[in-house]
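WARN retry 2 of 3 for item q-0093 after timeout on previous attempt; input resubmitted unchanged.
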Amino acid sequence: MIENTKCECGHQNRVGTVLCEACGKPLLEEETTGDLLEMRYDGVARRSQRVNPNIIDRIWNFFSSVKVAVYLIIITLIGAMFGTIFEQESNFIRFDPSTFYKDKYGTIGEIYYRLGLSHTYESWWFILLLVMIGASLVICSLDRVLPLYKALSKQKILKHMEFLTRQKVVYQGDIGLDGEHFVQQAVEPLRKRHYRVHTEGNALLAEKQRFSRWGPYVIHIGLIIFLLAVLFRGLPGLHMDEHYWFPEGEATRIPGTDYYLENERFTVEYYTEDEMSEDFKQTGKIVPKLYETKAILYKCVAGCQDPSKDPQLEEVARHPIQVNDPLVFEGLKAYQFDFDLTPKLRAVQPALVNTKTGESYGKFKLDMQNPQREYEAGPYKLTLHNKYMDFSLNEQGQPVSLSGQPNAPAFLFLIQGPELPAEGVQYLYFPKQIDKERFQQDAINRQLSGQEAIVTLDVQGMEDVDFIASSSYLNIRIDRAMPFVWLGLGIVMLGLILGFYWQHRRIWLRVDDGKLTLGGHTAKNWFGMRREVASFLAAMGVEADEKSLENRGKRP
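OK item q-0093 returned
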C-alpha cells in the first residue's frame, strides 16, 4: 500500500503520488538514492492506484491495465485468424452455407460452420472483443492523460535538489555568479533553441515540444473512432454489400433502402474469334467483351411502406453500369457483377376453369415477385397462402424454396366458392408446364383436397405469359461509415508523427550559493538532449563534456 504524507515543502499530495506535485521530491521510502526517477506522468497519482477500490474502481483498474489491453488484442487477432481459415458466409452469393462447408471441406468444414466461425466478424464474441478493446483504449487514456495534463499544466519552477540530481541528464558545478543574474542570462540562449522559459528567483524551467506527449493519446482517439466506425457499419442503413438480380424492364426495390433501381435495358457484346487468343479459341467458350446495364435509380417519396399502394418514385440518377464503372449516388454504388440471359417468368394471367362444365371465370394477373394477397375469379375467391420462387421438396417431403429467383415458381392458394367445402380447398399452382409435370401438380392437389380438383388454374395461351428476357446481377454497396474509418486512421497517423518526430524536452536549473544544479529530461533521444544541454552550457561559459552529463544512476 502506498501511504503519502505532506511533503516537506508543505504540499499535500494525493495517495499514489510518486513525486511531490510541487517540488518533485521522491515520496516513496523504497526509492533508493542515486537511482533515476520514475518520470512517467511526472509521478502524479492515477485513479487505478486508489487504495481500497470499490466495484467501479475495480472495473476501471481492469480496463486501465496495459497488460489486459495487450491480451485483448492478442485474443482478437487469434479470433480473426480463425476467420481466415475458410471463406466467410458474407462472401457467398449463390451458395447455401449450411451445406457448402461440408461438401467442400468435409468434416472439418462442417465443424467450422457449426462453431460459428463461418461468420466470425459478425459474431457476438468478436464484436464484444472490439467493444472491450475500445473500452480499454478510453479508460487507459483517461487514467493517464488527466493526471499528465494536470502535472504539465501546473509545473513548479523551483524543484527539490534530489529531483534535479536524479534525472538522466545532470550537471553540477560552481559558476561563481549570483543566482538570479545567471538565470536571467540563461533565458535568451534557451529561447534561441526554441524553449519556452519560466523563471522564479534563482530557478528556471525551460521546455519545448510539449505537444509530443499527447501523441499516444491522439493515437488512442484515432483508434477509438476507427473501432466505432467498424462497429457502426453493422447498423441498418450505414453499410451494405449485397448482390441482387434486377430483371430487365422493371424497377426493383433495393432491400433496406428507399431506393428502386430499374434495369431499363441490358446488352452484352462477345469477343469474336478474330479477337480471341489461341488459348481461348481452344476452350470453345464464348467470352463476354462488354456487358452493360442502362440503369435508372429512383427514390421513393410516398407510399414506401404501404404494400397496398403503389410507391411514388422520383428519378435521382441515371447511368450505364459497366464493370468497374458503377452508378454512384450519395454513397450508394451499384457495380456490374454478372448477368443471366435465361428467360424467366415475370408474370402470368391464368384463368380459373371449372373442370366439370369447362366454364372459364376470366383471367387475373399473377406477378412472380409481388403477387396480391387475394384474387376474385367469378364466384370464387383465391387467397394466397404461400409462394415458392424456386420450388423443391426437402428430405421430409415438405415444400421449400431453394432461392429467391423464379426458377420454378409455385403458389399455394386457398380457393373458396360454389361446390367447394365451406372452409375452402388448398390448391398448388405451377405457372410453368415443365414444373407441373416434374412435381406432378395434379397428384399434389388430389392429396391436398382428398379428391379430384373441381376448379383448376391454367394459362390459355402464350399471350398471357410475360417473360424476363435477361437479368442483370448488380453488387449494391453502401458504406457511410467508411469516411470515419479513414478519419480514425488519419488521426492515428497524426499521433504517430507527433510521437516519433518530436520530443518533449525540459531543463530545470537552480543556483544555490554560486553552485549550479541542472537536470534535464526528455521522452527519447537522450543523445540529442545531452548535446543540446552541453551546447547551452557552453553558451553560458560553462565547460562541460557531453558524456559527463549522463547520470549513471540505474534507470527504473
